[in-house]
Write a structure and sequence with these properties.
The structure is a homodimer.
Chain A: H1 2-9, H2 27-39, H3 43-53, H4 62-77, E1 81-90, E2 94-106, E3 110-111, E4 114-116, E5 126-134, E6 153-156, H5 177-184, H6 209-226, E7 231-235, E8 261-264, H7 266-277, E9 283-293, E10 298-306, E11 317-323, H8 333-353, E12 360-366, H9 374-383, E13 399-404, E14 412-416, H10 424-431, E15 441-443, H11 452-456, E16 462-467, H12 472-476, H13 489-508
Parallel strand pairs in A: 5-6, 6-7, 7-8, 11-12, 11-13, 13-16, 14-15
Antiparallel strand pairs in A: 1-10, 2-3, 2-9, 4-8, 5-9, 10-12, 14-16
Chain lengths: ~550, ~550
């Protein structure tokens, strides 16, 4: 272990030449953590509770409320202190599915795989009707449909004729040695390229026709609802019965009543489309019931702590976090019950070892991540600083680092520095005892799309680990198949062990984790831009 | 082309040394066939009609009846003669799904992926109930459940805890050169090993405990139905939303009324199981309606002909065939709309070229294949000979060869000789003009599980082509995902072209295709054995 550690500490990242000293840590404590995490893991028990037992956890839904209460109770049972279900701000309407049934009834009967789109409405009970294609790219295109769509089941045209993917390509993969070496060799970002990514940076915003068509979809859906269609049907991504469901109608408190709308598996959707295009009379039946909840428009994060044992450092913080919310089909297993279960397990491991961290270690399980990192952004604004004015709150100086996990069920292969070169030698040392478990790589690179960015945006050290991709992008991420079945026990066990060690090491370190320069304030965007309730794009 | 042909003709099969002469054929005619088949293919149009338009084609169902009428009309429209929907014998009750809805309602709502098991009954309208595990391997085990299961949703225990497959393995593959070389080098079967496989040979029949448990399932289902359970739920094979549905309850005319019974996707099933085992209260709702049809217990094959143009040879026959029936989920695209569409296309190609085959070329689209090659066996018994007595009917001497396609959407890589070594040099020559399309391999091997076996069993030359496997065994074969999307246009086009050439060459050949020795008569098995209506195992 010692040898590994020395080797690792002398291995510089690519062209970066930080002034590094030997980073020391309590190897015996880390060994204790490793023993507990690898030999007495309870991560799959927690994962079972977070998936099968609690079900989907869409932000604002009763399902998430119940899950938050369950996990808060679990935190208390684990002996965590200051457990809170803490509001972070207004999210919008809650919503859930009470019934979902769709079937083709002519030219023959077949039950179809479809899920109500988030924040969509109900059918008028059990309804039947003809399937029709609506072609419209702008409001004038809709004129010809006025008064003609009552009770119809509406689909849109598509150039796609067959739904099958590449059958010669495996769904899943792990990082190769070559890929990891490439990441390790990545150069630091050039100055001026930003402080390591900010929420909303780099999103596609105006790619002409396709984007205009996408932007028109909500208006189109509103028109169709007002015409009293039976059901609006969108083609979902995915094949083989896997259906990716994400995004949704507006959840804003003043949003108009949405029509009934589903996302349907590619195979089922394209069959409808091919049949209607061929001139066949196609009929469907559906019975969809959804409920909206407006009593409490707030959303919450769940937090809990192992209080710091050091009289001085105890007031300082190490944070672990993962988003706890999911989309509404499947049970959000890899996105992100996996990360949540790993963070709960990391806390359990530390507790079980009997180690007494000097700094306080706080876990936060976020909500609203899928709608734009909302829970973590709200928390960071409430506790540390707002990106709008960059006025630092007292806690800003107290946080050492925030560690995040949100890239599925794959084990940890290393860590992204988010451009924070000074943290490199530290993390490289800390990974050394886990090199044999495949965790070797420190990259200067950023990664985006999850909650460490909320910290990074206000100049706080926030890190996401490098994980093996597995079948996250091809099969599980936001899909109806993101269930307990997709969780890899060995991978999650490894991840929880490494994160427990990182958290403990961070809590014991003489200094806090080095920081990058503070970013400049970014006044809020104009109203109606990305980030307004109900219009924020989906994030993972 | 000539060079290929000579090369091919001198390339002997493994250790077999047949006395072969140069097999001549009309290369110009074959070129015409290739041009029509490869450049003006209509195979996907036919496949669309056989899948999307006609839907599932379970033997005995109204869906198959309608599809048979449609395809007979298509045969007539193509100019085929003597088109008939020809009864082959008693099949049993017809059955179809009128409605299928299942959902979990507690601990939270989620619609589930499930299909009624073939020939299963209806729920008592829309029903709700608690999910319970029944553990029983024999009748005495059932005592403790008497009077306790009314309205319950019954699942069985399983050792499996997670449903995911191997995510690092691609669903699909093609035959490698090495595999084809291995097939080409296969030795002839030793004398006494049978005449090339017989229907029913080699099936597992008594593997102790596992088989006993399987055999007990129908009795168990009967008990559960009699106790008035709400729904019986079986775990289906398959992952990712793919659900393999096959086999079924008894279709016999005197079979007792079956209870409502579904096969459910692994992920959904195992979630129910994990939850119930954990002590959670799990509830479901379901609304399943199925219909039985007893007015006509016969089943039918659809046949049509291009009459032979030669005054003498015109009374002789070449047959092409594929089974037209499917299981009841998906639309039986690769099993076997693919083979049916290819055979229809082969007939169309011959018609379109204007060639006048000397022998009659007859297409047969079978039913009852999935229940044990019943349609082709019935046809062979009615037209050629019964395996029971091997008394040859006059047509037996008239058939040159039967060609079959039933291994999915993959292109043709060669042909199985079924132990008929004398046919090897002929087929090797005929494949030569298609070597560049990947069809190169002649193997002495048998292949089983489909309708050429019905011919082989009475000493008639029946052949199945070697096809690329694609994702047939992993994804499509008997699954809810066996839809039009899985059909590969290029592969089917190639297959139809090659089969059209084989059919034409067979019709023109001076002699009929050589035959193996006639097999001995095999008196019928004792009543209740494999093959009795309702108890025959599923075949592909």
């Amino acid at each position: 272990m010692k040898k590994n550690l020395l080797f690792s500490a002398f291995f510089a990242i690519g062209a970066v030449s930080p002034l590094f000293a030997q980073e020391s840590f309590d190897a015996a404590a880390v060994q204790k953590i490793r023993d507990e995490g690898m030999n007495r893991s309870k991560v799959m028990e927690t994962a079972f509770t977070l998936t099968d037992v609690t079900g989907p956890r869409l932000s604002g839904s009763p399902g998430l409320r119940k899950a938050q209460e369950q996990v808060a109770a679990q935190m208390k049972a684990m002996g965590l202190q200051n457990v809170k279900i803490e509001p972070w701000g207004e999210f919008g309407k809650g919503w859930q599915i009470d019934k979902s049934y769709t079937a083709m009834t002519a030219p023959y009967y077949d039950a179809l795989i479809a899920y109500p789109k988030a924040w969509s409405g109900s059918t008028k009970g059990a309804v039947k009707g003809e399937v029709v294609i609506v072609k419209a790219d702008s409001l004038p295109d809709l004129e010809k449909y006025k008064g003609k769509l009552k009770g119809k089941f509406v689909i849109y045209d598509s150039q796609t004729t067959q739904a099958a993917g590449d059958i010669f390509q495996a769904d899943g993969s792990r990082n190769t040695d070559a890929r990891l070496a490439e990441m390790a060799a990545t150069q630091p970002v050039t100055p001026g390229a930003g402080p390591g990514g900010r929420p909303g940076a780099g999103r596609p915003g105006g790619r002409g026709g396709a984007f205009a068509a996408m932007a028109f979809r909500p208006k189109l859906a509103e028109f169709l609802a007002s015409e009293g269609v039976g059901l609006i049907i969108n083609m979902g991504r995915g094949t083989d019965g896997t259906l990716f469901t994400s995004n949704g109608n507006s959840r804003a408190k003043d949003a108009p009543k949405a029509g009934p709308e589903v996302e349907m598996s590619g195979e089922d959707y394209l069959r409808l489309l091919r049949l209607v295009k061929s001139g066949a009379k196609v009929e469907m039946e559906a019975d969809i019931k959804t409920s909206f909840y407006t009593k409490d428009l707030q959303e919450y994060n769940v937090v809990g702590e192992i209080p710091g044992s050091d009289p001085t450092l105890g007031s300082e913080l190490v944070m672990l976090g993962a988003h706890f919310d999911s989309w509404h089909s499947g049970t959000g297993a890899t996105d992100n019950a996996a990360g949540s279960a790993v963070m709960m397990e990391a806390m359990r491991i530390i507790q079980a070892t009997g180690l007494k961290p000097k700094r306080t270690i706080r876990i936060a399980l976020w909500s609203g991540e899928e709608q734009g990192l909302l829970g973590s952004r709200g928390y960071v604004t409430n506790h540390f600083a707002s990106t709008a004015d960059m006025v630092l709150k007292p806690e800003h100086s107290k946080l050492s680092a925030y560690y995040n996990l949100d890239n599925g069920t794959g084990k940890i292969r290393g860590v992204y520095l988010q451009g924070n070169a000074a943290a490199g030698p530290i993390f490289r040392s800390w990974l050394a005892p886990f090199n044999d478990l495949g965790a070797t790589t420190v990259t200067i690179s950023n990664t985006g799309g999850t909650d460490h960015q909320s910290y990074d945006a206000v100049g706080l050290p926030g890190f996401q680990f490098i994980q093996d991709g597995m079948d996250y992008n091809t099969r599980t991420h936001h899909s109806n198949q993101d269930t307990y079945d997709r969780l890899s026990a060995d991978d999650l066990k490894q991840a929880a062990t490494i994160i427990a060690a990182f958290a403990y090491n961070t809590s014991q370190r003489t200094e806090k984790i080095p920081r990058k320069a503070l970013p400049a304030a970014r006044p809020p965007q104009t109203p109606g831009g990305a980030g307004a309730a109900g219009t924020a794009p989906a994030r993972n």
